[in-house]
Structures are given as C-alpha cells and as structure tokens.
Amino acid sequence: YELKTKDKIFFAIGGAGENIAFQAVSAWLFFFWSGQGDPTKALIPIGLLGILMGIGRLIEAFDDPLIGHLSDRTKSRWGRRFPYIFLGSPFLALSFFLLWTPVGPFIMPLYFFITLQFFFLTYTLVSAPYEGILPELAKTSEDRVSTSAWRVLFGVIGAAIGLVGSSVLIQNFGFKAMGAILGIATLVSFWISIL
Fold this sequence. Notes:
Elements (H helix, E strand, L loop, with lengths): L4 H8 L1 H20 L12 H28 L8 H17 L9 H25 L1 H4 L3 H33 L1 H20 L1
C-alpha cells in the first residue's frame, strides 16, 4: 500500500505542532519567568529558576523511555499510538498555556515546577508516539522518506511560528494570549495529523 501525497501532508502537519510549542518554550520561558530583562521583576529568582528547570529536565529523562514503552505495548482499536496523540494533545495545549499564567508569589516556584513537569510530560506523551507511528503508516522506504521530508518542512514552519510568531503575539497581545493561541495551534496541528 502506497501512501497518497495528501495523507503524507496531513500526517506531516503534526511536525508543526511539535515545533510550535517547543520553540516558543525554548525562546521565551526563561525570559518570561526571570523578569523579562529586569531581574528585579523576576517571578522566580534566576538561580532557583535555573535549578527548577534543570531538575525538570532530569525527571523528563525518565518520562521519555516510559512513554515510549507504554505506546509500544498499547493495544486499542485505534492502534498503539493514536490514543496518546489524540488524548494527549489537549493536555499539551493546556500545559503550554499554563506556563504563561503565573499565580500568587508564595507558591510561584512550586506552580512553575509542576506546570513545567506537566508540559514536559504531555509533550513527550504526544510527540514520542507521533514520531513512532511513521513506520507503521509508511510501509515502504520511499513513503517513509517522502513523508519525513514533508514532516521536516512542516517542522520548519512550526519552528518559525514558535520563534517568530510568538514574538509578534507577545508584542501585540502579551504572553498569556500567545500561550492560548499557540497552544490551540499545537492542538490543531496534531489533531489534523491523526484525523
């Protein structure tokens, strides 16, 4: 069975979703929480922020193989990977939005850490199965290569949205609106790819 070009493109749109959220977090998260260029306005002291982010990445190292293992072993009428992508995408969008909505000062570090872990977990919950599904969809080398090429193209588009689009949104509407808009864009990208 050879994949049709439209099916390759629709699947590859998920590559945009992967990069929209990831690139926006990479570009803006530390800047946002560390006072947006003014350390006296930091939501969390910079040293503590760095420690929390480092611990978060360390914990994420354990999430990745666990989710990969679970999606390899899952049996459902939708297949092994689709349920993770479909059900995880709304939580990924929510976690992305919450990263830009700080709460009261006394619980700020705890809120940041929990929200960051929620984002890392949901990102892996969606992106690992998305990446793992390609060999199951594309049965031939030619289909895998061409589908991957489309995915790279949409990944670049997603990176541009996450890096440049986020900047435009922040300048015009603020961080919270950027979180909502790009969170929805991430969700829509993944749902288009699997539906």
